[in-house]
Fold this protein.
Amino acid sequence: MSNYPDVVAKIVSDYLERVKSQLRLVPVREQNEFLREIESHVYEAYQQTPGVDDVARILAVLRNLGEPAEVVSDRLPGTMVRSGTKRNLPLYVVGGILIAMFGLPLGFGGLGVLVGLLAAAAGVLIAFYAAAGSITLVGSLVTLLGLIRFLAPHLFDRLVELGFIQLGGAVGEFLDQFSPTDQGLLMMLVGCVILAGGLGMLWVGKHLLRGLRFLFSLLFDRARRLAQTVRRKWNHEGREAPGMGRANPKPAVHAASRAE
Amino acid sequence: MEYQDEGKDRRVTQLRKGILELAVMGVLYHERHYGYSLVRVLSERGSIALKEGTIYPILARLDRDGLVGSAWVESDQGPPRKYYALTASGRQLFDELSQELDLLVSLVQQKWKNAQQPEHAGKRLLVEKG
């Protein structure tokens, strides 16, 4: 952070964090470059803003700069497009369809349904991770047992005698056809396959998680904008109510020159 | 009258939004700028008061389309600055868009002139068509 007073540095840091959180779907390199650019802008603007109260100065700078969502507004669509083409995750497409079907035409009710669906999706994701974790654990254990059978068959027999390992039924009968060494190799092979399956599920889950996080952030962003619109209208009506007219009309030149 | 005021504000904002990208290209046509200096030029020379952050989405869009090039330059006064300048294709597009804008402006001004003309001007056209 540049040479700001502590309190100003904290405010700038918080603002940049908010910008960063808006950019979480943007590639890291692009994210860092944009943050550097905004940091540079804030510094320049702060230096050019007159005043003795540092906090008031930095707040004025950030107010002129705008809300982080506005500052990054045009980066997200591009990133969303790129994400779609690069990863081609069906979840992104499904999310878009759900929002188009429920979120837009039905307003609050549709958003409620969408929240429910997202909660269900989160539940599925948790179950998916639980299954992936279990499969990974089973694969690791079978591989370990195979290794023990291969390297120390007597230890394996001892563990069977003590009841720590119970290999009965069809599996036991099948393994009895082979020598201890072959049994070990076979178990390691099967264990590695299961382990690979579990790790593969975890790898896929990472992308599923990213997709779900994207859907959640999209939903919250839409809800926040809706709340802002409602609040703005509410405040506007509140100002109009007493005289049913413009109590304090905005200067036309100022209003006209705002190009947000 | 409230609706009319709001409608006017909204339309002026839309008009300025549409023109802002072209204005940015116009400023970058002649000299390179970093984000903050670009905002200053637009607001001082062009009298366009804008949320400063809106300049970055525009620059990002121009950059993505290859219409501007950018380079980081160290600054003695603080953090490095990212300078932007119009590329050759950006200049070409700006020239074309400027012509389009001139056409639109002349169209708007022509309509305005017509509105000042006497009533029979429109009737004469109808007679010619018939």
Observations:
- Chain A has a mean pLDDT of 77.
